[in-house]
Amino acid sequence: AISKRQCFLLVFRFRSRSSPRTLSTSLLDSMALPFATVPASQRPYCVNVRFEVQPDKLDQALSLLRGDQEGAHSEKGNLQFVVGQDMKKPNAIFIHEEYSNEDSFNAHVAADYCQKFFKWAETNPFTDGGAPVMETYLGEFEPKKRALTPGIFINATLSCKPSVRAEFLPKFMANAKGANNDEPGCKQFVWGESTTEPNTFHLHEEYEGKEALAAHSKSAHFQAWSKYSGKGDVFSKKPVLSIYKFLDLSKAAKL
Fold this sequence. Notes:
Mean pLDDT: 90
Helix content: 25-40%
Number of strands: 8
């Protein structure tokens, strides 16, 4: 079997991960996150992935992802495994996964159905510049099992300047709280800090459809966040935002 490190070196943009416990104690002293004091073993371990396959390889990719998703859903430690497609480019694929902790994620990576995808990825089925990018983060929310629900989804990465972290977090969290508590069409808004890059935050959002996403954009909490984040001196890198539609893999052929 291919080791986890080999998989990441061959397939993903591998980054040596710092210990989540070290991250929560050494990096967050100045502005602790809500779940910073919760042991890493009790926090959701989240994964966002994006890649683009060659169009004639799409059916193979979806078949392998179906097996991976079905296998993940049988795992005790898996909380969620969502796959989606770009709205205009169907060979652009996005994934969001949640596990009860990092050990559960490692167990998933070692499973045969996950290894099959890694081995297939070694054949270089991706477009130029479309090789998988994987981001990992500890969730700032209580772990719970989630059902698959169709809709419009978002994966995003936001990197704030260290100097604005103390003001950035409350404003960002107000938007997340508003989406989760005040928007009937928002089914999920989860986020957390990168396990590899301080002051980089990844998020996953799910909305019932285009109308619900539009309602989020018009909400007072989002407008306040948009006004703050649009000032021009907040981010150290350009935000990465991926909007995609839910993909029902039960319709994909099995290899």
